[in-house]
Amino acid sequence: MRTSHIVASLLLVAGLVAGCQTSRPGKGAPPRPEPLAQPERAAMQTRVFPISEGVLFSATIAVLQDLEWKLDTVDRAAGLIRASNLRRLEPLGPREETIASFEWRRKAIKGRASEKDQWTRWDSMVIHIEKWPNRQSRARIILSRNGSLPAMSYPARIERRDVIINAPAKEEAVELLLPEVYDVLFKQIEQAVLDRTGIE
């Protein structure tokens, strides 16, 4: 299996196992799980490499291109890379995707068979590469799952009256916090570094 398929599979699993308010017009979603503490997040998203910033930056760019991510911003001087993947339609929004109740998710997906009820979804990442002590470089990767809904109107019944609800456009972003997804990316970057330097 190609690495890009592995990463895509892990991102899909992230959506399945990683809960949250419902999108319009659903109700009754279970509560969100407790977020990770900042030190745990940082440890998951950060690696230090025994190489220069330039080599790490080049290796990271190569990996993203191999994995078919679109490079939105590449700022070598700031050590900043922003990338995203193609947009697609999905029934669940980024926050809903983290709901642990499979029964709730099944009902929500079944109720959003029409394209007009679905989210426009995409994944994005921000990578910061900086000089680190002892001739090392540090990379921090933050992966997010994103979604948007257009403004829409839908019928509802309130206090025994039929009304039209006008919902504004909505956009969400949820940070992806699964260690295995970051591990796969960092292993690919480590291999790309090795290819360029021969450092074990």
Written account of the structure:
This protein is an alpha+beta fold and about 200 residues long. It has a single domain (about 5-195), classed as Kinase associated domain 1, KA1 (TATA-Binding Protein), CATH 3.30.310.80. The protein is built from five helices and nine strands. The strands form two sheets. Strands 1, 2, 3, 4, 5, 6 and 9 form a seven-stranded antiparallel sheet that branches. α1 (about 5-15) packs antiparallel against α5 and α3 (about 55-65) crosses α5. It is elongated. The chain starts with a helix and ends with a helix. The relative contact order is 0.22.
The CATH superfamily is identified as Kinase associated domain 1, KA1
The total strand number stands at: 9
The CATH architecture: 2-Layer Sandwich
Mean pLDDT: 84
Taken in chain order, the helices and strands follow as HHEHEEEHEEEEEH
Query: Measured on Cα atoms, how large is the radius of gyration?
Result: 20 Å
Uncertain spans, ≥5 residues at pLDDT below 50? 12-27
Number of helices: 5
Query: What percent of residues adopt helix (DSSP H or I)?
Result: 25-40%
Query: What's the N-to-C terminus distance?
Result: 25 Å
What is the class in the CATH system? Alpha Beta
Largest sheet: 7 strands, antiparallel
Percentage of residues in strands:
25-35%
- The general outline is elongated
Structural class: alpha+beta
Classify the fold: give the CATH topology.
TATA-Binding Protein
Number of domains: 1
